[in-house]
Design goal:
Distance between the termini: 19 Å
CATH architecture of the largest domain: 3-Layer(aba) Sandwich
Number of helices: 9
CATH class of the largest domain: Alpha Beta
Shape: globular
Number of domains: 2
Mean pLDDT: 94
CATH superfamily of the largest domain: Flavodoxin domain
Helix content: 25-40%
Radius of gyration: 19 Å
């Protein structure tokens, strides 16, 4: 029996949205019922959850960028807001900037299982690193590319065929726990702890109070009073830092320092494959 598909994501720099759009386009091509939600549209979340929970047969595709080896707080908060589900399937997916995909898929999968979902599949997709996207040749340049997107299309086509043939199989959660035991254990020890936010200062001489940072923040974590102030919903996507036309938002650690640490991590971990689907 065909379910109704719901695609939910947040995408500060556009990579996760691109993959969500690939899911949406392929589902539409195959004639599926599908509804989508960008979690940046926070006012739409309550109505979306109501529609979702009122639908008997559902499949939730939920996407997050990987930050600090984890799924970002808005995505986990959305999962935690869902009621206990019956006869529901889920497909977590993540985009990651080649430093480490961490335990984000396992983390999302575990939370979904606790809400009564069965995991139909999952995917990690290589993307340009969010902290480097303004560089001439950033890490992950050109990802997600056509080959990355092809894997997502194949994943959806296989899932749709399984649903139509009534041959769905639940994915074992441990399949998504693919990091080394040491790294996995260290990442899991951070689950449930306060998300540490990089302190930021405002150069009030440079800031023109244009409001672009407030407008572009995906979680409404910035208010002008009269200069930008940050709330605890910030998860350090650094959109504000990278998009500020006056370079007036100054993180405690410079982008150059952050980028150097990212490069070290990439060389140390060398995670392969870059893009992978799980069924």
């Amino acid at each position: 029996m065909r379910p109704k598909f719901f695609v939910v994501y947040i995408s500060p720099n556009g990579s996760t949205r691109l993959i969500a759009d690939v899911f949406l386009q392929q589902l539409n091509r195959s004639g599926q019922q599908v509804t989508s939600l960008n979690l940046a549209d926070h006012l739409l979340v309550p109505d979306f959850i109501e529609e979702f929970t009122d639908t008997e047969n559902v499949c939730l595709l939920i996407g997050s960028p990987v930050y600090r080896d984890m799924a970002v707080p808005p995505v986990m908060d959305f999962i935690h807001r869902l009621p206990k589900m019956k006869n529901a399937w889920a497909i977590p997916f993540v985009t990651w900037g080649l430093a480490c995909s961490g335990i984000a898929l396992w983390q999302m999968g575990k939370a979904l299982l606790e809400k009564g979902f069965r995991i139909a599949g999952a995917a990690k997709v290589a993307s340009v690193h969010a902290m480097m996207r303004n560089m001439d040749h950033p890490i992950g340049e050109e990802h997600p590319d056509k080959e990355d997107q092809k894997q997502i299309i194949q994943l959806i086509d296989l899932l749709v065929s399984r649903f139509e043939a009534n041959e769905m199989k639940a994915l074992d959660l441990e399949t998504l726990d693919y990091q080394s035991p040491e790294m996995s254990g260290e990442c899991k020890s951070r689950i449930g702890k306060t998300w540490m936010i990089v302190p930021k200062k405002i150069d009030t001489n440079a800031c023109t109070q244009c409001g672009l940072c407030e407008e572009e923040c995906p979680v409404q974590a910035i208010v002008l009073d009269p200069y930008p102030k940050f709330t605890n919903t910030c998860f350090d996507c650094f959109n504000c830092v990278q998009l500020c036309p006056e370079n007036a938002i100054l993180p405690a650690r410079s982008l150059e320092e952050i980028q150097a640490n990212i490069n070290k991590r990439i060389n140390l971990i060398q995670e392969k494959p870059l893009t992978q689907s799980f069924m």
